[in-house]
Amino acid sequence: MGFASAFYLCLILVFLLPVSVVAQTSQNITLGSSLTAALNQNDSWKSPSGDFAFGFQEVEAGMFLLAIWFEKIPEKTIIWSANGGNLVQQGSRIQLTTDGQFRLNDEQGKQVWVARLAGTGSVSYAAMLDTGNFVLASQDSTNLWESFNLPTDTIVPTQVLKQGSSLIARYAETNYSRGRFTFELQSDGNIVIFSTILPPNSVNGGPKKSTENDPPYYSTYTVGSDLQVIFNQSGSIDLEAKSRSILRNIVPSRVSASNSYQRAILEYDGVFRQYVYPKNNSVAAGRPMAWSLLSYVPENICKNITSGGSGICGYNSYCIIGNDQRHKCLCLPGYSYLDPDDELNGCKQDFASQSCDGGHDAADLFDLQDMMNVDFVNLAPEYDYYAEVTEDWCRQVCLSDCFCPLAVFRSGDGGCWKKKFPLSNGRIDTDFVGKSFVKIRKDYSTKTPSDEGPGKGSKKKNKSTLNLILTMLLSSSAFLNLSLLIATLWAVHRKRRVILVQPSRAIQGMSLQSFTYKELEEATNKFDEELGKGACSTVYKGVLDIGNNKNLIAVKRLDNMVKDNDKEFQAEMSAIGKTNHKNLVQLLGFCNEGHHRLLVYEYMSNGSLASYLFENSRPSWYKRTEIAFGTARGLVYLHEECSNQIIHCDIKPQNILLDDSFTARISDFGLAKLLEKNQTRTLTEIRGTRGYVAPEWWFRNKPVTVKVDVYSFGILLLELICCRRSFEQDAEDENQKILANWAYDCYEEGRMPLLVQEDEEAMEDIKRVEQFVMIAIWCIQDDPLLRPTMKIVLQMLEGALEVPYPPINPHSSV
Hints:
Layout: H1 2-25, E1 28-30, E2 34-36, E3 44-46, E4 52-60, E5 63-70, E6 78-81, E7 88-89, E8 93-96, E9 102-105, E10 111-114, E11 125-128, E12 134-137, E13 143-146, E14 154-155, E15 160-162, E16 166-172, E17 175-185, E18 191-195, E19 218-219, E20 228-231, E21 237-240, E22 246-251, E23 260-266, E24 272-278, E25 283-284, E26 287-288, E27 292-297, E28 317-321, E29 327-331, E30 335-337, E31 347-349, E32 366-372, E33 374-376, E34 382-386, H2 391-399, E35 406-410, E36 415-419, E37 426-428, E38 434-441, H3 457-474, H4 477-501, E39 505-506, E40 513-514, H5 517-523, E41 530-533, E42 537-546, E43 549-558, H6 566-577, E44 587-593, E45 596-602, H7 609-614, H8 621-641, E46 656-658, E47 664-666, H9 695-698, H10 707-722, H11 739-748, H12 760-763, H13 766-779, H14 790-798
Parallel strand pairs: 28-37, 40-44
Antiparallel strand pairs: 1-11, 2-8, 3-4, 4-5, 5-6, 5-7, 8-9, 9-10, 11-12, 12-13, 14-23, 15-20, 16-17, 17-18, 18-19, 20-21, 21-22, 23-24, 24-27, 25-26, 28-29, 30-31, 32-38, 33-37, 34-36, 35-36, 35-38, 39-40, 41-42, 42-43, 43-45, 44-45, 46-47
């Protein structure tokens, strides 16, 4: 208790000290002082250290923004502005008048902006502080107005957002007027990010009123009073209670503000990002210093959809995450940006829509273009849904419907959604096993008969003649019979082609595909490329050809199956097939043919956590914490949120796979019941080492509960913290061979920094390291009743619950 109290006291002092020092060393700006906007002039009011400056920045040709910025870096990055929606011209002036008014007047002397005082006293001076806060103060140094209390889109270390405060994104990267997105600490204690307005000049209804906000696409789901968001000197951004206890860690980065400049900004694309810039502005590796991204929320904005409005990317477009983890908004085929300079503004259709009058705009003038893994989620406008249909049927029902601009088909269960115009919430989602069909006019014509202008009479006449001929033909019964025959033959051909290129079949009541052994043998080239091998299975790399696309898969061949268990196998496949979570490896299908039992999974490009953690260079502390969060969320889903509770029974680094973005994905869940009993207990060569298996299962043969997964997760968490295996035979110190015992010794002796002593990033976040170690010790208690549930574990990891001190000895019950 003494160590903890001292630690928190030091933390409070570290936080308060820079503020008090700055207040004492600020350079006062006297009444009557002013600044004038001028070209090629660097006149500004600087903070005592010179880190920040207040004045005018030219952000457009001849147009100026009254702002605060980082002064010592070449970019002069802006953190606050007064007149983003009303830029001023050269000759405009900001003045602290002799009567204490702080006003911005344009070049003609018209007031553009004025500081509204919060207190009742009179202003005696102004000051630009070293924290980045600009203040107007009274004679007794009481702040009557401060920029920190009126943030725009950015916060910096020591800045606090109180309940009811918000950040509003700028409209574009270089447009500082109010944008589309808001970050808000609401009066009920919930932190949300939501879309505030539609782009102006939209063809889809124009801007909303400022009071009409879309539901949030990010939320912390926190509740309370007297809460605040604080950007700590340690680099973390936390939601804190009045008691200073952390309720939620919003971004997990921990980089000391003493050695770097930092800022967190709600950027114009709707993502809240934290950046760091080294204070030593030297040239490293031939490149100048620059802002580096530390962390951001939401993790994947393309998947954080809303229940209404235009979505993240505007209407008629779809969202995709790039290699730089930033999202792009792309137009659908046959569509183009409303504003080529603003991709978030949505897209317009570049061809005449299908007519419903049965004339020249009949269905045969249109085609559907496939877009693999593109989903327009259920909250997007839709007006019809069909279950258990074929892909070809879904195509035809949209093509023949003049109201249908796009249909979404889900391969797993044969679901078909017809969407209506305008389209919203489109995204590329590798977890979505299906495609969208976009209706496009075959000739891509953007003209309709009413568009004909002067000099086009002959074309109009020819078109009218063609329409007349078509009308006569369409009225002919012989033509109708011939058309019906051709359409029938074409539909049969399409159906046969779809079956040929789609070797799998959907099983009724399951969102999985049933494969033949021959199909998987061909897909894996006779099982020639082995990805991994375990005690009960071997995994092979394969490729499935679907249409014009090649999809990588992982095929797991199960050995030592329980004999005569066809019904149990089918039941387990049904349960696994109903799972759907971003932290689980998606099971795509299976083979249950004779003695062959094979499972088909999506391919994970970055392999297993075991390889990532132990075989390569040490992953960053931030990435390891993200993997811990992801694994915990996946286990919470398996234990409490999916329709049938699933106990994994084999949580270990080899069964945590990493996708393209290194997100943790749990594999092999739901298989424990399918294996012979001796296959679910992997023996270890090290006598007395429990490994990842809970003691009640290994030694006492007690019934398996979710607490066995909690125990395994505790061992895994220690491995993530220390970046080493749970047992190291070659450890120099005998006491460090078993990681769990060493971690407990370090905890008991107050020497937890020893666990990460060679990890500079983790050392800077030592408070979190200590909390994670304590959580792990709770997880590996021998008595399963003492272990928390995975939901509580996740809440402690995220900071929503305080971590109590673990019992004296985690193995006291042995």
